[in-house]
Write a structure and sequence with these properties.
There is one protein chain. Strand 5 and strand 6 form a beta hairpin. This protein is an alpha+beta fold and 378 residues long. It contains 18 helices and eight strands. It has a four-stranded antiparallel sheet, sandwiched between helices.
Length: 378
């Protein structure tokens, strides 16, 4: 009985600390992994749905089972922090001259916000329990979503993201691994039913089947993780999305229960809600780093970012973009030069396009850039 009382006191401590530090939910599960996690991940990799994210196959064993990551772990404490928008994130997609940035990236990097608070909770817990702890915020091979479902936070919806009956989908996940044996919460069950709104909402048809995603077609992957040129098939479908995509999340009916971000640093900056595409086209590396200091966008670097912005410019149909795209035909980065060619081919007449490119690209040596030019003319 004393042990049971001690466990309850530790749970209450965790619950109070989580609420005090701005977390919106806290649940507990054990460290036993369902064998289906490994099977599903192996299947995902075998189909090459992971694209160029090489770390997934490299960390498969550790990712598939928490005790492979840390053999001493007994319990996992899962926490959430909401970042819900106060306006419909899909509205901005209609303004073709404005850039659309994923809701989670419109202010500070959530890793920086959550990690310190998680360490504070874990430190107090370790002091009270006498047990060891490790904290994780999307920076280690941890299967956060299946673990969170096992803990009762929510369930993985047909779009593969976690959905909660009380929080919708707009929340971050964090976890504390501990050697303490704690009473676990009941797992959550699937509440998607016959709904397929998220699947229908995807601009690139990135879901081969419900509960499966092909990252190679996902705009979030293409605009953030993918380092090379973006497949020409998907460029028109990206619209004005320059960093991430929220369409499948925003379409989910369970988001009627979502909460607006309570943490000020997760509430959207005014200059990132609907920024002008033209504004970003002038950024050099220094301006990019300064403007996005403390932002998750900074991690993709200026070159990948400008690649995305050029695609948005090409999709805008706005003739004012032309003069802002031209300088990028001489950019040192060949992916940017190729993206500029594509953007201009969408904004000017064929005759004007050939005149601009042939004049600006004298001496071009890159086979990939020349191929972009050839394809743009066909």
């Amino acid at each position: 009985m004393a042990n049971s009382k001690h466990k309850e006191k530790l749970r209450q401590l965790l619950k109070e600390d989580a609420a005090r530090l701005g977390f919106s939910d806290m649940r507990i599960t054990d460290a036993k992994a369902d064998q289906s996690l490994k099977t599903n991940l192996q299947d995902f990799i075998a189909k090459e749905y992971h694209g160029t994210m090489a770390w997934l196959p490299e960390t498969l064993e550790r990712r598939a089972s928490p005790d492979q990551l840390w053999p001493d772990v007994k319990s996992i404490i899962v926490l959430t922090m909401n970042y819900g928008p106060d306006i419909d994130p899909l509205l901005n997609l209609k303004s073709k001259d404005k850039a659309n940035i994923s809701v989670y990236a419109r202010n500070r990097d959530y890793h920086d916000i959550i990690k310190g608070r998680l360490k504070e909770i874990a430190g107090r817990f370790a002091a009270k329990s006498g047990e060891d702890v490790k904290v994780f915020v999307d920076t280690a091979p941890v299967m956060e979503k299946p673990i969170a479902q096992q803990a009762g936070i929510g369930w993985q919806g047909k779009h593969t993201n976690l959905v909660s009956r009380t929080q919708g989908s707009w929340f971050f996940l964090a976890s504390i691994f501990t050697t303490a044996e704690l009473d676990k919460d009941a797992p959550e069950i699937d509440h998607c039913g016959s709904c397929s709104a998220c699947l229908s909402a995807c601009p690139t048809d990135a879901f081969p089947a419900p509960y499966q995603i092909d990252a190679r077609k996902c705009i979030s992957y293409l605009s953030i993780e993918h380092k090379g040129p973006i497949d020409r098939r998907f460029r028109p479908m990206m619209g004005n999305r320059i960093y991430g995509c929220d369409d499948c999340l925003a379409a989910c009916p369970w988001n009627k229960f979502a909460q607006n971000a309570s943490e000020m640093k997760l509430q959207a900056r005014n200059d990132l809600i609907a920024p002008d595409i033209k504004h970003f086209l002038s950024f050099d590396d220094q301006e990019f780093r300064k403007f996005f200091s403390g932002s998750p966008i900074k991690r993709i670097g200026r070159d990948r970012f400008i690649r995305n912005v050029l695609i948005a410019a090409g999709n805008s149909g706005d003739q004012e973009m032309i003069e802002h795209c031209k300088p990028h035909l001489k950019d040192p980065n060949e992916i940017i030069r190729g993206s500029a060619i594509w953007a201009l081919s969408r904004l000017v007449s064929p005759a004007e396009f050939d005149d601009i490119v042939s004049r600006e690209m004298i001496g071009e040596k890159s086979a990939d850039v020349l191929e972009e030019w050839r394809l743009a003319r066909t």
